[in-house]
Amino acid sequence: METKTLDYQTHIKLWESSGVSKVAYCKEHSLTYSTFFYHLKRKKGTKAHKKFIEVKIKDKEQILKQDSVEVYLANGSRLVFAPGSSSRFVHEVIFGC
C-alpha cells in the first residue's frame, strides 16, 4: 500500500477515537477534508450517496431575503446558488444532466 494511504488509515483510526468532527480533525492536523473523506469512504468500502435529501426551511421569508443559498456537500465542496434558482437547475449542476 502507498505511504499516503497508510497515513490516512492511521489518521482515520485516530479520528475515530478522538470524538471530534471530521472537519475539526482535518483542521487540527492540516489535512484536506475532501481527501480525508475519500480515504474514509474507501476504508468503509462504500460510495457517497448520490441523491437529494429533503431540507426543511423554518423561516422561508429569511431565505427569500438572502443574496444566495449555499449547499455544503459531504465531500467538503460548497455550491452557491442565486435566489430563485430552480430545482431543475440545481439538479443539473449537481448531476450534470
What labels describe this entry?
two-stranded antiparallel sheet; 52% helix; mainly alpha; 2 strands
Structural topology:
Layout: H1 3-18, H2 22-28, H3 33-44, H4 60-65, E1 69-72, E2 78-81, H5 87-95
Antiparallel strand pairs: 1-2
Helix pairs in contact: 1-3
Explain what the structure shows:
This protein has 97 residues and is mainly α. Helix content is 52%, strand content 8%. It has helices spanning 3-18, 22-28, 33-44, 60-65, 87-95; strands spanning 69-72, 78-81. Strands 1-2 form a two-stranded antiparallel ribbon. The longest helix has 16 residues, at 3-18. It is elongated.
> From N to C, what is the helix and strand string?
HHHHEEH
Number of strands: 2
Mean pLDDT across the residues is 77
Strand content: 5-15%
* Outline type: elongated
What is the structure about, briefly put?
The chain is mainly α. It has 2 domains: 3-44; 60-95, no CATH class. The chain is built from 5 helices and 2 strands.
